[in-house]
Amino acid sequence: MEIxxxxxxxxxxxxxxxxxxxxxxxxxALRLVLFLLRQDKEVIGRFGETILRLKDEIRYCRSCNxxxxxxxxxxxxxxxxxxxxxxxxENPQDVMAIENTGQYxxxxxxxxxxxxxxxxxxxxxxxxxxxxxxxxxxxVKELILxxxxxxxxxxxxxxxxxxxxxxxxxxxxxxxxxxxxGELEYADEITLGRSIANRTLFEETFKL
Length: 208
Fold this sequence. Notes:
Helicase, Ruva Protein, domain 3; Dna Topoisomerase Vi A Subunit, Chain: A, domain 2
């Protein structure tokens, strides 16, 4: 008979749940669970309710696929943004990272992933329809490919370049101030801001 390391089966189950979150080890999970146990029922209730509401009520912007409380997110709905410039990113974390630089004033498109044959993710698994519609209507003048500088990111960049290179859209990419193999959400704001401000034509990357 296996002896549990925990005095309670419920405690063990809670630790298993928290340990399943990204970046959370078992020691951290145990610390979080014990912290919650010390809180009032009202605090625990609000915590649980918020998680349920997050799952049930969160939306994805119909225009850019970013996380939103409404059908159209605040960025896409903002008339002060330059809607002719679209920054293509992998996920909502990247939108937040770029917004924190204060250097970008266009709109975004969130792909929801990167092409990765190893993980079974192909071009058809990416969210591109809203972007294609904007380009078809002639609403986009510049497309900034702001994907992680990894093999998956570069593969996706090249796929999008080939997909849209015969359109009148100017296709650019971040300057290589972001470290090769790095992820946007972990880049410091100054480096990321300069990478956006000093972006280059995507075709120029083939000459490096």
